[in-house]
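Q: What structure does this chain adopt?
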Amino acid sequence: MSNSKIVLTLLLALVLGFGGGYLAQMVGGDSDVSDLSNKVDAIGEEVSSLQTRVNRMPDDFASFASVDEVSALKTSFDQLEQKVEQTGVGVSGEDVADLQNKIQNLETQVSELENTGSQEGGEGLMVGYVNATDAFNVFTEAVSEERERAQSKNEELTQLREQAIQGEITEEEFNRQSDILQAEKLKAQLAIDLAMVEKMINAPGFESISDRLQQLKGQVDPIMSELNGVLENMRDGSAAPEEVAQTLQQINSQYQQLDNLLTQLIETKIFQITNREANNQGYDLVFRQENVILYRNNEKVDDLTEDTKDVLRSEIGG
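A:
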């Protein structure tokens, strides 16, 4: 239930308390006690009716009930409460008539709020979010074989270190094989990006960024060729260790830059799909979950991540 609806409900409950409590005790000073009692009973029925109407209002009442309107209702009841406290016992017919007028004004305001809610549909904002990191996994899944080859190089490096620790190989041999494995690992990482770029180029859903993908591929190819040449020299022992270290450092720096560019392109695609699908489904706001959403109401904020991933898989052909 919205805050505004709660406030209005409590205010009506307060009036019900007046009708059934204070006023019942106060009637008695007027010459026609029976008539005043009947009027008080009628007021109680009117307020009960208003209470029922408020309860039927949608929970997103705050979306069309302004703060000023609710504040005006509260002011009206504050004044009424003060009137009761000041009058004490022996309330007159004029006091009851004044209360009837206030209830009538309240009924008018509630009717206006109901009409406003009907005109606006009583609907709040449609809000959702997407976990972009999770959606990114669609692309890594599409190049799972290349990723497995890169992971195998990490395992080989771990085994090589264990051999060195156990004294099974010399330090010189460890350094030589370690350099080769590091280069092979770098090549495997480049192969992941290259495979991902080629898959996206061939996918019909990525035509809007095909030019940028072609440019990226044009940058990866010469780097891969240079790395293959370095590996060949390392394996036959013709490469100087200092030159190898410098060359690999340069290639790794280039790889990092290209990988960042590819990541940006993929994120752009994820956001394009999210915007398109959110618009088609009538959402008003869609957030990125990472570093944005600290709390969400699961019943009111939708997780659109899986929908986004399904569309990505369809467009990338995975």
